[in-house]
Structure formats: structure tokens, C-alpha cells
Amino acid sequence: MYVEIHDYTKIIKRKTVLDHVNCGFERGEICGLVGPNGSGKTMLLRAICGFIRPTDGRVLIGGKPVVFNEALPEKIGVLIEHPGFIGADTAWGNLEYLAGLDGGFDEKETERLMKVFGLWQHRGDKVKSFSLGMRQKLAIVQALMEHQRLILLDEPMNGLDRESVMAFQQEMRRQRERGNAVIIASHQGAELQEIADRVLHVENGRIMS
Ligand SMILES: Nc1ncnc2c1ncn2[C@@H]1O[C@H](COP(=O)(O)OP(=O)(O)OP(=O)(O)O)[C@@H](O)[C@H]1O
């Protein structure tokens, strides 16, 4: 398995938010996470990318451990909280800046993704002028633009119109074809089912299926 989660437990303020989670994710797979509000979907995504320190258990990516607050074994594409875009800067400027923090900016791939999501003509616009859906799409572009092999998306279809949802689904299939591992938490069950190879049900911090 490319991503392995071994007996992962997270307790916050005496509440068990992840409860002995064991699961794994393969490359070339789209896996959906569904479950009620507060069931632990976001927490599971945060665990995978090392944003939280486990109370117990561990996560491996490509066989290497993810350690809280340390460099990740792999570049991960993440859309969990809204990225801190600078409103006074342009869409392109924001992406260039964020890619630069990690070392490289692939202009061609970023252009391709902006075109997929209908943002190319807005590349020179300031992000503060963007609608909610446009910001969401910019955040998706940001999570994909560095050829990340592991992609974690929390409610990526929130605020997207039908056309954008379809563009998103098509792009996720493309990411799968490239051999990337895509994990998507979403309440949009039907739209998720259309693209997911597998759906895990999360309840009370546990994987039910
Ligand atoms: N900083 C925190 N301190 C205490 N409890 C927290 C904290 N962050 C999250 N939780 C709790 O962890 C549990 C899991 O939350 P999580 O955000 O993973 O749910 P979710 O499945 O993503 O929900 P939603 O569908 O609403 O996005 C919830 O009970 C939540 O209250």
C-alpha cells in the first residue's frame, strides 16, 4: 500500500476523534470518505499529512513514516482548510508564490489546470475579486500544480457549479490515470460515487467499511 494507516488514534481533550483507524490507499485510486458532520473525515486527512500528532499509531507514505512537524516523505497536494491566498495579489501571483515556497513552479501544468477550471482568463485578477467558487477552484489548482502523487481534498466540490463539478471529476480521473492516489472527503455523495473506486464510511472516528 502506498499510504498505510496503522492503528491510528487521536484523542483531543479527552474526546477520541480517531479511534484505532487501520486503512490504506493505493496509487492510481480515487477513494472517497463519507460520514456525518464531526465523524472524523477531516481529522483523518490531517493525520495522513502529519498536521496532527497521533496519540497512538502511525502513518506511512511510500513506506516512510509521517512525523508531526517534520518534512513529509512526499509532496502532498492538500486542500483542507482554505489556503491563505493573498487577496491583494493576483491568482497567478499567489500560485507562483506558493509553489516557490516548495522549490519549483511548473508554469505549463499550472496553466493547464487553470484552463481546466476556467480560471485562466482570470489569472491576472486579484484574488480578493474572486467569488467563493473561484477561490475553491484556485485552491484545487494549488493542490494539484506540483504533480503531487498523493492528493488530499476536503469538500473540494463545495461551492462549485455543475460545470465545475464535471471539470473536477474529469481532472480527478486524469490524476488517477497518472498513477496518483486521490482521497476525497465529501458530502456530495452522488458526485463522489461517480468517480470513486472505493468509498470508506467514517463514523465516530472509525472506519466502518
Ligand atoms: N481542535 C479541536 N479540538 C477539539 N476537538 C476537535 C478539534 N478539531 C476537531 N475536533 C473534533 O473532532 C471530531 C472530528 O472532526 P472532523 O473535523 O474530522 O469531522 P468531519 O467528519 O470532517 O466533519 P464535517 O463533515 O463537519 O466536515 C469532531 O467531533 C470535532 O468536534
Automatic annotation (TrEMBL):
<dbReference type="GO" id="GO:0005524">
    <property type="term" value="F:ATP binding"/>
</dbReference>
<dbReference type="InterPro" id="IPR051782">
    <property type="entry name" value="ABC_Transporter_VariousFunc"/>
</dbReference>
<feature type="domain" description="ABC transporter">
    <location>
        <begin position="3"/>
        <end position="209"/>
    </location>
</feature>
<protein>
    <submittedName>
        <fullName>ABC transporter</fullName>
    </submittedName>
</protein>
<keyword id="KW-0067">ATP-binding</keyword>
<keyword id="KW-0547">Nucleotide-binding</keyword>
<keyword id="KW-0813">Transport</keyword>
<dbReference type="InterPro" id="IPR003593">
    <property type="entry name" value="AAA+_ATPase"/>
</dbReference>
<dbReference type="Pfam" id="PF00005">
    <property type="entry name" value="ABC_tran"/>
</dbReference>
<dbReference type="InterPro" id="IPR027417">
    <property type="entry name" value="P-loop_NTPase"/>
</dbReference>
<dbReference type="InterPro" id="IPR003439">
    <property type="entry name" value="ABC_transporter-like_ATP-bd"/>
</dbReference>
<dbReference type="GO" id="GO:0016887">
    <property type="term" value="F:ATP hydrolysis activity"/>
</dbReference>
<dbReference type="InterPro" id="IPR017871">
    <property type="entry name" value="ABC_transporter-like_CS"/>
</dbReference>
